[in-house]
Amino acid sequence: MSALLRIEDLTVSFGTSAGRVRALNNVNITLEEGEVYCVVGESGSGKSTLALTVMGLLPHNAEVADGRIMYKDIDLLRSGPDQMRDLRGREIALVFQDAKSALNPLECIGPQLEEVILEHSDVSLRNANKMAQDMLHEMGLPDPKRIMGQYPFALSGGMCQRIMMAMALILRPKLLIADEPTSGLDVTLQAELLHRIRELVKDFNSSVLLITHDMGVVAAMAKKVGVIYAGNVVENAEVVPLFRRSQHPYTWSLLQALPRMDDPGKRIEPLPGSSPDMVNLPMECPFLPRCFKAQSQCRAEVKPKLVETERDHFVACYNPVIPVGELNAD
């Protein structure tokens, strides 16, 4: 496999009245062709900023201080508006977190779906209309013709989410970025949407950057996982080693907060404290005030960098949950 998307040393901040919010700090992620890569972390950790940066949709107060985003051989950060417009929808698609807000409230669903097709392919309006209806049917929506004439406010949140997914998948993009696609949906709709994503990967060898805070979705979908905290990737590994041998204290704490069906008597341990102030991030590890493994080195040294503790398993921690010596002994 070859890399479809490479995010290298990405640093993004936002100007606010309180100061500059350091949303992403030297983020490195590689997404291979036909791979599902999950980015997981708490709310406010920078996950959605990552998606918007890749799509070139950052607000006017954002600044990309450093880094590159390479899609194939194209640097998206240095691409012009026309080139980005051509890539969006046809090659790279984004499913927004809040589907109802992402849809145009003043336009019916049909023209919004047809616009995606007409902008990126040479088909007639009649064929675009048929393609849109067929895609809505694929997404399990009843009576697609009626839905094409509806406004977003007349539809449920789950229906709007499936319409957004239809809009993203209708041209079979090579890269799908899904920002919390299952948020607020019941388990049946969640399973259906995740099934559609798997089909896209299988049938068209597409890649998916799946952003979520749901570790269950991560376990079901991911090949690789990047754990992000306060704008920093603190652990990066394949999904099975991450769940079995999580090494960063933050990742370990996230897993301890999950109920276990195989251990119904397990005590759920919530993660204490709160995320740091993103305007005044410390020079040391941002997880330090909440860490149960902190030692003097963590307070005296600068922020730890990602290092490979075992094959394809990277951790940014001076005192990981599983010591490096134990990993090497295995």
How is the topology of this model organized?
Elements: E1 3-16, E2 19-32, E3 36-40, H1 47-55, E4 62-71, E5 74-75, H2 81-87, E6 92-95, H3 99-102, H4 109-120, H5 125-138, H6 144-148, H7 157-169, E7 175-179, H8 187-204, E8 207-212, H9 215-221, E9 224-229, E10 232-238, H10 239-244, H11 249-256, H12 296-300, E11 307-310, E12 313-315, H13 324-329
Parallel strand pairs: 3-8, 3-9, 6-7, 7-8
Antiparallel strand pairs: 1-2, 1-4, 4-5, 9-10, 10-12, 11-12
Describe the 3D structure.
This protein is an alpha/beta fold and 330 residues long. It has a domain at 252-330. 35% of the residues lie in helices and 24% in strands. The protein has 13 helices and 12 strands. It has helices spanning 47-55, 81-87, 99-102, 109-120, 125-138, 144-148, 157-169, 187-204, 215-221, 239-244, 249-256, 296-300, 324-329; strands at residues 3-16, 19-32, 36-40, 62-71, 74-75, 92-95, 175-179, 207-212, 224-229, 232-238, 307-310, 313-315. An 8-stranded mixed sheet has the order 6-7-8-3-9-10-12-11, with helices on both faces. The chain has a 4-stranded antiparallel sheet with strand order 2-1-4-5, covered by helices on one side. The model has no long low-confidence stretch (mean pLDDT 90).
